[in-house]
Amino acid sequence: MRPGGRWWRPVAALLWLATGTPATGGEVIDMAGRHVTVPDQIHRIYAAHDPPAIFLASLAPDLMVGVPFDRPPGSARFLPPAVNRLPRIRGAGRIDPERLLALGIDLVVIWNMRGPPDAFAAQMDAIGIPAVMVDAAPFSRYAATFRFLGALLHRQARSEVLARALEQASARLAGVQAIPGAGRVRVYYADSADGLRSQCATAFRGEVVPLAGGANVLPCRTADSMGASVTVSLERLLLLDPDVIVARSPAIARFLRADAGWQALRAVREGRVYAFPDRPFNWVERPHSQFKLLTVQWLAQRLYPGRLAFDFAQATRNFYRTFFGMELSDDDLARLRG
Fold it and tell me: What is the pLDDT of residues 122-131, one digit of tens each?
């Protein structure tokens, strides 16, 4: 199942939660359609996957007991102090459930990758810790996820600010997304160190390309999973002749620009190789996060500079103020640009 499937089911949960009526505990319907009994007052949250952890870092870092993601050297300056102080706690499938009991967890938040049944959610049920599943893909579900979590945690005002920021970014993309197929810039997404692994046009991991109005040059289909990808050859890429190559990280882009074999591609020779920022973690996927708000607009402006105005410095500063309450320096922005 595509991540975020059964999208109508969260509506019931949101209707139940949106009343804002305190309770001594009650049943909610999570974003996978599961009925879960949760406490009214939630003080200690364990995020079992990176995406919900990053969402919670914006919404309720004070309730988190830890984070499942690594923080590479140099990333601390791009995360709020409250998040940097949290210990790293292994994610779903890598942590002993008994440790969560010892930590006194009130709620576990799990990424709804494939819908129920979910093995880790079943483990939590077995030991009596409430676990809700939330959507972290596709991007169009992010606002609903923030509203769901905000209602669940009694942080509706904060979650509404974040949800609206995401919706406003999506609305700005309507113009480029309406460009007819023949007029779209053709894009290849380089997803590996050698540039030869990518994502099919229908894959949720490569959704940033169509969101930005681009046409993925690989009209294939793979399973919707984090491990799915497609391998191509330079010979095939020469035949596909993409207008633009966008790399998952600055390191990949540097390799493509410097490698003699890649110089045969028109996009490389013409200097149309771009890279997504990767601090404090990748902005496009692995992990999926609200940073995609910036990524889709940045890529759309690169593909169609006359169609969408996007000031990287201003937008990134505004994003950090809104989502993390942080102010970035000029040096910070230079580091993010890679």
Answer: 999 999 999 9
